[in-house]
């Protein structure tokens, strides 16, 4: 019986769109491309999510001619990491029916800076951030560590993510999975009809 519903963050709870965010942070097309290529698509971005590099070290790694632009983008990108409000009614119903709700996300430690303003997160019982644990999806170890962190059973949990590889990783750890495509109604139907949740 499912007791725990675990959500990814990007493109499930919040809209992760590097093109859109870079456009908001830039004054022209050239700056937008610099932000995308030298920040969001960079090795440093992955290292931040892995918890292997600090924000200060990331800034120091930027090319000198682009450093101020990229530093600004690094410290302000999450201003445009916007919520999907359509997921909130589902979270409310799950919470009102005594399901435990968790976040399991590949993201950096800046999470603490923006999470307080995300309405959806007030329904969550716990947050597992990759950078704080030095583990990344879809490595099976992150799912095992997540379960241990919150004293959960794999067979009582379902993981919702928009990336199939991450769902496959969860399944290797014994956790049921659902690959989310942005359709909340379809997700709700799956939880009720296939996973037999009652809410």
From TrEMBL:
TM region(s), chain numbering: none
Pfam families, alphabetized: Hydrolase
InterPro entries noted in UniProt: HAD-like_sf, HAD-SF_hydro_IA, HAD_sf, PGP-like_dom2
Coiled coil: none
Protein name (Swiss-Prot/TrEMBL): HAD family phosphatase
Organism: Candidatus Erysipelatoclostridium merdavium
